[in-house]
Design goal:
heterodimer; A: 154 residues; alpha+beta; DNA polymerase, domain 1; five-stranded mixed β-sheet; B: 765 residues; Aldehyde Oxidoreductase, domain 4; seven-stranded mixed β-sheet; 26 strands; globular
């Protein structure tokens, strides 16, 4: 066990944890953030995705030792109903999710992608999201929402 | 004025004695209610204590809160297809209150009766029907109460936004809040004595005629989406209890083997680590989740020798073909004399189709919490059927069922009898053993590897054609593993892994199904046959309901076969169907899909394409419990790679009365995309010892890069008919529509799912 500082959603907090423990468990259990979600623990689905210094990262396989002083943003830190990220707004407007368990992966990955890519093509959007899983089959809605958000972001 | 009836069971304690006993008894959900208000509303409604939570009580479904808002207690659950909205619409419509005034409260056994949970696309069809009747009865009762209060006949009153008023004089009024707000209805319903999906308990009221609808039929958005998008809603995986410890289950490498030696010392360094071991049941708990993960990894276990339980997967379909039939059943009625008709046929068309085991493979592995405290057990579960989970826990732990409460909290996806029910039972056993609240979280390999599976099957079809080219006989037979090795819920130890592992036998029951369609032939027989499970105890290949249980496999075969017959007779596939389909609504969906898709009549396959990349179109149609849909698929095929792109779908969908067209469209899209995934990719792999599909690499599903370009949905609304289900019907014909499109493009018929690139390439070469 070690004392570890984590910079999450703009706040530095100290936890006692093993340095080899994945970030996911620190976020969920030590910091009480119920997002992201555990989906596979294998970096295969994306349900645990957070931003680490602006990049989408699968927190289920990212040991705390690799996080260091990087800035971690979770879905809760991405935006609020009052000040949403465009992809969150688009997700609500398009009524995308069925069960909604997968949305950390899509929203956090799409947000990082859209922050860096203006006016993306459909092929670029799909390429940016490939590998993420949605078991309910909301693929059509996901793509509509990402396009809608891209339009909002000009 | 209508005389208010006395609720019979109320006579046990007289109203006067209740009132004399003091105000506390007269108060329930909301603020205290003045005595004169109670007296004013008459005997039948003056009970302050809640009537029993039984299906024959109006208060079990509907409550008017002190502020006039409505709580609707629903014994089914929304698996993300918008039932929160649809049920709210139905209740608000009948009560004449604004949609926003209704809150639907689902899936807590302490607040709802057992309406069957999420099951068989019956949320609206059966659950909504009951809520509609209950809401209509509540309105009737409230109008009668207002009539008494206002001194006007009930038929001189109308209701606007929860206020009963005289027709033509809105100053003479009484609001629902004034009439009963904060207190319970005490009205008995005419319960049919069934629980589950079949529960039906109408009152005296008749529901509205569709022509008066103001809320039903409107596209109202879901309100549960924003909280998910802004990380404000907790899933069942997020429930945290004071003093909770974390659990993990340990499953054998060889299915059927059990622990014979467990070395608890191997995890003694992990804070709070404990082993829970009972016969085959083996789990660990630890204070922290990371500790539980480590403990499950580190625990030294010696397993019994077990004979490898499974056949070589390459021989699976041969196994099914040669296995002894445990039960055979003719579906519906045999028409004519099929055997004789085949004897005199000029020509026989026949084919056999194969469908693999498939996994629920929910987005997140199941998770459940259980707490055993002072003899009471509480379980938080993502199960579709929390009321049955309650029964299962009572039986598993040997506690009276009234001491158990099961609370549904939205889970990580649910498409039938998934791993959620097993996790609930494991959590209860662990919590009971360690004396602390336990959260058990399955791992990915347990979710995909050990969930109950959709059964594998083969399907034989043959058609007899006479000398003039008319189909004179049709026979369709499915043979496969039952769809109910374990029941559709975790209501008994025999139906859960924990039960099997703690010594209750798996008791596989017989269930399959036949095609649901209206083809008319002079001689017709459809049947199914079940075979025993491969392993008669805790088995990673035990079968159970997976979204549209056996529907995709049966209709993949039957609707592929109709195409094969049409092709053999050189007839356009839609024309062939329309010659034989007899139900008017079936005909309507087929025609609507064809028209929307711009279908050009010609026989399949097309013969105008050369080269590596080819395209085709295919049709398939089916019914499901009153709903019918027809799908036209347009697919692109890369012959060299074997890669299929199911590029476009056009679906016509008729589920009777539409409650919410937006929710319906989203539900249909999800069905089709999941159907494409199951058709193109999904197959549970196994070796002699165990299931080897244990993650997303070994159980691939449809990727976002493979999303259809378009799904065109034509909704056929029948406001005059009762609503039927939409959660599953449209997944049913997807596989056949794709298979038929592949045939149209290539002239090659693929009769085994999934259509993975390797299989397609092989079939085309």
């Amino acid at each position: 066990m070690a004392r570890i500082n984590l910079d999450v959603n703009g706040k530095v907090q100290t936890i006692d944890a093993d340095a080899d423990m994945p970030l996911l468990y620190a976020l969920r259990n030590d910091l009480g953030l119920n997002n992201p979600h555990f989906g596979c623990g294998l970096a295969q689905c994306g349900a645990c995705t957070v931003h680490v210094d602006g990049q989408p990262v699968r927190s289920c396989v990212t040991p705390l030792s690799a996080v260091g002083s990087s800035k971690v943003i979770t879905l809760a830190g991405l935006g609020t109903p009052e000040k949403p990220h465009p992809i969150q707004k688009a997700y609500v407007e398009e009524q995308v999710p069925q069960c909604g368990y997968c949305i950390n992966g899509w929203i956090m990955t799409a947000a990082a992608f859209l922050n860096q890519t203006k006016k993306p093509t459909d092929a670029q959007i799909k390429e940016a999201l490939t590998g993420l899983k949605c078991r309910c089959g909301t693929h059509m809605g996901i793509l509509r929402a990402v396009k809608r958000a891209a339009a909002m972001m000009g | 004025m209508t005389k208010m009836e006395k609720a019979t069971h109320f006579s046990r304690i007289s109203r006067r004695s209740l009132l004399k006993a003091g105000g506390a008894l007269v108060v329930s959900l909301g603020a205290p209610v003045a005595l004169d208000t109670v007296l004013g509303i008459g005997d039948a409604f003056a009970q302050g204590t809640k009537p029993p939570l039984t299906p024959d009580q109006l208060s079990s479904y509907i409550a008017i809160n002190a502020d006039g808002t409505v709580s609707a207690f629903f014994g089914k659950m929304d698996m993300g297809q918008g039932l929160f909205v649809a049920i709210g619409q139905m209740v608000a419509e009948e009560l004449d209150v604004p949609f926003k005034a209704v809150t639907v409260i689902m899936g807590d056994t302490a607040t709802s009766v057992n309406q069957g949970g999420a099951s068989g696309s019956t949320g609206i069809q059966m659950g909504g029907k009951q809520m509609r009747m209950a809401a209509a009865e509540a309105r009737r009762v409230l109008v009668d109460m207002a009539a008494a209060k206002l001194g006007l006949p009930a038929d001189a009153l109308a209701v606007t936004d929860g206020v009963v008023h005289a027709k033509g004089d809105e100053t003479k009024k009484a609001s629902y809040a004034e009439l009963i707000g904060g207190r319970y209805f005490n009205v008995e319903l005419d319960w049919n004595k069934q629980i589950g999906n079949l529960l039906y308990a109408p009152g005296k009221a008749k529901p509205k005629e569709a022509k008066h609808y103001k809320i039903v039929g409107k596209p109202i958005a879901r309100e549960d989406i924003a909280p998910k998008v802004y990380a404000q809603e907790d899933f069942c995986t997020d429930v945290k209890l004071p003093g909770m410890v974390h659990g993990r289950m340990i499953r054998p490498a060889v299915a059927g083997s059990v622990p014979v030696k467990v070395d608890e010392n191997s995890i003694k360094d992990i804070p709070g680590a404990k082993v829970v071991w009972e016969k085959g049941f083996l789990g660990v708990v630890a204070d922290k989740e990371w500790g539980a993960i480590k403990a499950a990894e580190k625990l030294k276990v010696e397993w019994s020798d077990a004979k490898p339980p499974f056949p070589d997967q390459a021989a699976l379909y041969d196994h099914i073909r040669s296995a002894q039939v445990r039960k055979r059943e003719i579906g519906g009625r045999e028409v004519g004399n099929v055997d004789d008709a085949f004897k005199t046929a000029a020509r026989v068309v026949e084919a056999e189709y194969e469908w693999p085991f498939q996994s629920h493979a929910c987005m997140g592995p199941a998770c459940a919490m259980a707490e055993v405290k002072d003899g009471n057990v509480t379980c938080w579960t993502g199960s579709q059927k929390p009321h049955f989970v309650k029964d299962g826990i009572a039986l598993s732990l040997g506690v009276p069922v009234e001491k158990v409460r099961s609370i549904w909290v939205v889970g990580p996806g649910s498409y039938g009898r998934s791993d959620a029910d097993d996790a609930a039972m494991d959590a209860a056993v662990l919590a009971n053993a360690v004396g602390k609240p336990v959260r058990v979280q399955y791992t990915r390999n347990q979710a995909t590897g050990w969930d109950p599976k959709g059964p594998a099957s083969i399907h034989r079809a043959r058609a007899a054609v006479d000398a003039s080219g008319n189909v004179v006989a049709y026979e369709f037979t499915s043979k496969g593993f039952s769809r109910i090795d374990v029941n559709t819920n975790g209501g008994a130890p025999k139906d859960t892994l924990a039960g099997h592992l703690r010594g209750t036998e798996l008791k596989s029951a017989d269930g399959f199904g036949v095609p649901a369609e209206s083809y008319e032939f002079a001689n017709k027989r459809m049947a199914w046959e079940t075979i025993p499970p491969l392993l008669e105890r805790a088995s990673p290949l035990r079968s159970a309901h997976l979204r549209d249980p056996v529907g995709p496999q049966v209709h993949f075969a039957s609707e592929s076969f109709m195409d094969e017959v049409a092709a053999a007779l050189n007839i356009d596939p839609i024309e062939f169907r329309l010659r034989h389909v007899k139900d008017a609504r079936d005909i309507a969906v087929i025609q609507a899909a064809a028209e929307k898709a711009g279908w050009q009549a010609r026989p399949s396959p097309r013969k105008d394409q050369a080269g590596n990349k080819v395209s085709g179109r295919g049709i398939a149609y089916s019914q499901r419990n009153g709903t019918r849909c027809a799908i036209v698929a347009e697919v692109d095929i890369d012959r060299a790679s074997g890669k299929i792109w199911a590029r476009k779908f056009t679906i016509a969908h008729d589920c009777g009365q539409i409650i919410n067209p937006d929710g319906l469209k989203h539900t249909i899209e999800g069905n089709i995309v999941q159907g494409v995934s199951r058709t193109l990719w999904e197959e549970v792999k196994f070796d002699l010892n165990n299931v080897t599909s244990v993650d997303w690499m070994t159980y691939p599903i449809l990727d976002i890069t493979e999303t259809p370009e378009a799904i065109e949905v034509v909704l056929i609304n029948h406001p005059e008919l009762p609503p039927t289900g939409a959660g599953e019907p449209s997944i049913r014909p997807v596989a056949a529509a794709i298979a038929n499109a592949i045939f149209d493009a290539t002239g090659v018929r693929i009769r085994r799912v999934p259509f993975s690139p390797d299989r397609v390439k092989q079939s085309l070469s």
